[in-house]
Amino acid sequence: MKLCECLFNNGMKNFILLVSCTFLLLTVQAQTSRPPMEDVVNAIKNNRIEDMSKYFDNIVPVTINNTQTIYSRNQAEVVLKDFFDRNLPKDFLVMDNGSPNNTTKFIIGNLVTPSGTKYNVYILMKQKDSNYLLQEIRINKE
To answer: What CATH number matches the domain at 35-141, 3.40.50.20, 3.10.450.50, 3.90.180.10, 3.40.50.2300?
Structure first.
């Protein structure tokens, strides 16, 4: 009888360990596979433009205060990093987001700096192959 109990206890321990590891793996995978739009919003909120830049297309139209310039992905990262370093995000509120079709997503948000300056932010992403890439970003002072 003791042998059966020992095997049963070890079997249950192994089963519980297996279930726990599976749950942990699924949790980690869910955390690392956030939607691209959520990653971009978090990058702005946390002033981590390098996290956002992984979604840049080869060329990125950037509009800051109604002045649009088309940059390479590396140039766009430098320009946006400079902007956000000078206008640290205190808060970024998503006011609207959507998907007008299956391959396009957008965000409209309000960026607030510690000095109280407010900016309207528009971000457009389109699907290329199987990934969503940032196609345009507009940041205009209210």
So the answer is: 3.10.450.50
Among positive and negative, which fits the CA dihedral 27, 32, 37, 38?
Answer: positive
The 3 state secondary structure assigned to 77-108 is HHHHHHHHHHCCCCEEEEEEEEEEECCEEEEE
- pTM for the predicted model, two decimal places: 0.74
Q: Which residues contact 65 (CB under 8 A, 6 or more apart)?
A: 139, 140, 141
Say what the pLDDT of residue 114 is. Answer: 96
* 107, β-bridge pairs: 97, 123
Residue with tokens 């946006």: 80
Closest CA to 106 of 72, 73, 130, 137: 137
Torsion sign (Cα): 92, 94, 100, 102 = positive
pLDDT band for 30, please (50, 70, 90 cuts): very low
Would you say 117 and 108 are in contact if contact means Cβ atoms under 8 Å apart?
no
